[in-house]
Backbone:
């Protein structure tokens, strides 16, 4: 059963950041030519893979935690409506206000209206994938409201007028020297002697943001988790920018995808173990903030929670694909992916890059709008192995490829070729003839192990992204017939 | 139709004929029966791994240990209102509930905690009088937390079982840090750049 069939809308086009303007192979080709990018990514992903492996290995019950995480998410999705209603009741009972947004446009309108009502023309933001997804900063800017990203990596991206390329570290594609250049250019009054030492760069960000935190009246955050039974929200972070935003302003607006909740307080005991080790490779991240509604005398006195659909219910409608909603945005799958490590995140076009992005983005938008992403994988399975909630990403990729092929109204050249191949393989005589004909390919190869990539179309559509091995001098059946007769 | 009803309606359509609720098996560890001295050692090791400082003492020496920890800090010290008099260094100011921004005037903060998790080196503050409001442990650049042995648990599940989910909670694991530049950890960004933990227990000799 598909969402299209059930009439459940996907994330609308024209708003937000779920669709690239180029297909993955086209965008990836440019990325692969960028030697600096590949060096930066290779260095960063190697570092984080080692850290994650170390802290996961020291947990004797990691497999049990992972299974519990998977099961809790599956159980949550199975009763998502009930849990959301409970969350709404609990948040409201503790002085918060809950808003519902069908899609990105509606969520942006709600947040803009809430900010305007405070009279503020600037907001401080905690890094949040949901607000990136809906293009909230762009919407606020259009309304004359300045949104200041306060996470260091997000700040680097914002100051560099760049796009995020990683779920956890949006500026992973930049090295320290490039970051130093961005700061020197874009931070007013920055120390001209600023070096590219990470500590000095972090201090420059601290100085730049300090006064903005102290004067901010409105903060906007995402949420890592929300507990339905208590109305407790959780933000997991490292730098303290999150705590600044969640504690100092008068008004806090949290935008959260509807899939981010867990039913019970106890469920957090699983995810607060799985997330930090999978994400930054730490036993625990420096700061986790938890709050329920409004607390007199401590923190924001006005709290709004915006619950966002934007295609999530369409994902939920697909029994084979809905597991993608279990994602806790740790980004472990990006760091181990041989494709991501070489292309980086921009090639995926969506704010959700890497293996999880390749299954999530096409489902949120409808597969026709991100048709190349399910193919942006070698199906090696490393993503599944490291996923802390055991999302079977390779299987969903295959499922989406099938969905994409079935959606084609006219057969593609590839489909015709395979149809022809099926006929040939079904007839031994044709197959032997074809094998002999394939032997002619040896002339094209001129002694090299693969055929040239520049074959004429339509063969080029295949060889552009794949090595086509030179046909052997002798096939197995020919060799068998020669040695054993018949 | 309201957005609320529409989203809930979509979920019900998507789930269709909802089957039985998937079962959740909690086969992971929920208790830790290591003896307390071992837990205290693990806690110390993990906190120091974050490049924070741990000072161990007996409960009757908390005050002098705090004073020693703060000896190098120049500037005023603010304490959470519920911090016992015996812990407070000379001249410390009790948080008077001034606007949070005013807390930047202080060089250091002294609070207690509500729980500490050995396995992850995590302190939990719950905005109770001894922990203080959230801004208190955030704005001054040095944070000193006193942990007593009875507050130390082995793992995350035991800690969460002790906490009240309706209070504002802050879990602190080391000083503020970032890994955003080439994924290398750097301690000290927006939160306190220095974390000092005074760990008090009868079961160890004074340092």
Residues:
């Amino acid at each position: 059963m598909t969402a299209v069939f059930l009439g459940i809308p996907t994330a609308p086009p024209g708003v937000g950041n779920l669709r690239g303007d180029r297909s993955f192979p086209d965008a990836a080709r440019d990325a692969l030519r960028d030697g600096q990018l590949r060096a930066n990514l290779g260095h960063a992903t190697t570092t984080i893979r080692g850290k994650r492996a170390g802290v996961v290995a020291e947990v004797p019950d990691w497999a049990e935690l992972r299974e519990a995480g998977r099961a809790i998410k599956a159980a949550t999705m199975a009763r998502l409506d009930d849990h959301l209603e409970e969350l709404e009741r609990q948040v409201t009972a503790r002085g918060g206000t809950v808003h519902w947004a069908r899609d990105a446009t509606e969520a942006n309108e709600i947040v803009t209206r809430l900010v305007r009502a405070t009279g503020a023309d600037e907001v401080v933001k905690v890094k949040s994938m949901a607000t990136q997804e809906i293009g909230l900063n762009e919407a606020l800017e259009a309304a004359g409201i300045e949104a200041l990203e306060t996470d260091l990596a997000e700040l680097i991206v914002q100051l560099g007028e760049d796009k995020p390329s990683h779920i956890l570290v949006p500026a992973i594609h930049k090295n320290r020297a490039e970051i130093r250049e961005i700061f020197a250019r874009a931070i007013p009054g920055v120390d001209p002697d600023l070096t590219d030492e990470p500590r000095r760069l972090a201090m420059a960000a601290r100085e730049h943001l300090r006064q903005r935190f102290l004067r901010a009246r409105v903060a906007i955050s995402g949420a890592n988790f929300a507990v339905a039974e208590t109305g407790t929200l959780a933000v997991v972070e490292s730098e303290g920018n999150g705590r600044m935003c969640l504690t100092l302003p008068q008004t806090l607006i949290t935008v959260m995808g509807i899939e981010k909740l867990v039913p019970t307080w106890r469920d957090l005991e699983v995810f607060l173990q799985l997330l930090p080790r999978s994400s930054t490779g730490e036993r625990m991240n420096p700061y986790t903030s938890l709050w329920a509604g409004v607390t007199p005398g401590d923190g924001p006195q006005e709290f709004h929670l915006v619950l966002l659909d934007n295609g999530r219910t369409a994902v939920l409608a697909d029994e084979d694909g809905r597991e993608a909603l279990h994602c806790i945005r740790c980004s472990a799958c990006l760091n181990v992916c041989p494709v991501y490590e070489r292309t980086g995140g921009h090639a995926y076009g969506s704010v959700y890059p890497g293996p999880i992005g390749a299954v999530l983005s096409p489902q949120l938008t409808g597969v026709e709008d991100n048709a190349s992403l399910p193919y942006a994988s070698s199906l090696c399975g490393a993503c599944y192995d490291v996923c802390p909630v055991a999302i079977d990403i390779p299987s969903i990729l295959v499922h989406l490829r099938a969905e994409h092929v079935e959606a084609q109204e006219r057969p593609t050249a590839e489909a015709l070729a395979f149809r022809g191949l099926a006929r040939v393989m079904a007839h031994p005589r044709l197959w032997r003839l074809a094998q002999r004909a394939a032997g002619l390919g040896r002339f094209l190869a001129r002694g090299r192990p693969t055929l040239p990539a520049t074959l004429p179309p339509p063969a080029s559509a295949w060889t552009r992204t794949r090595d086509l091995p030179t046909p052997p001098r002798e096939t197995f059946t020919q060799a068998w017939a020669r040695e054993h007769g018949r | 139709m309201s957005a609320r009803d529409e989203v809930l309606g979509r979920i019900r359509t998507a789930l269709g004929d909802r089957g039985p609720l998937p079962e959740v098996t909690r086969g992971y560890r929920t208790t830790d029966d290591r003896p307390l001295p071992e837990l205290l050692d693990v806690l110390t090791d993990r906190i120091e791994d974050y490049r924070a400082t741990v000072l161990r003492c007996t409960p009757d020496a908390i005050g002098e240990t705090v004073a020693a920890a703060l000896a190098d800090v120049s500037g005023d010290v603010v304490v959470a209102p519920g911090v016992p008099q015996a812990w407070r260094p000379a001249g410390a100011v009790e948080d008077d509930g001034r606007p949070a921004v005013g807390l930047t005037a202080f060089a250091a903060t002294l609070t207690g905690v509500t729980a500490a998790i050995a396995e992850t080196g995590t302190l939990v503050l719950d905005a109770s009088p001894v922990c203080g409001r959230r801004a208190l442990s955030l704005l001054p650049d040095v944070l000193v937390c006193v942990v007593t042995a009875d507050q130390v648990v082995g793992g995350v599940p035991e800690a969460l079982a002790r906490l009240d989910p309706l209070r504002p909670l802050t879990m602190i694991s080391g000083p503020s840090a970032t890994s955003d530049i080439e994924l290398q950890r750097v301690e000290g960004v927006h939160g306190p750049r220095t974390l000092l933990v005074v760990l008090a227990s009868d079961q160890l000799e004074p340092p």
Q: What stands out?
A: The mean pLDDT of chain A is 93. Residues 35-57 of chain A form the longest helix (23 residues). Chain A has two domains: 1-409, 413-484. Chain A has 24 helices and ten strands.
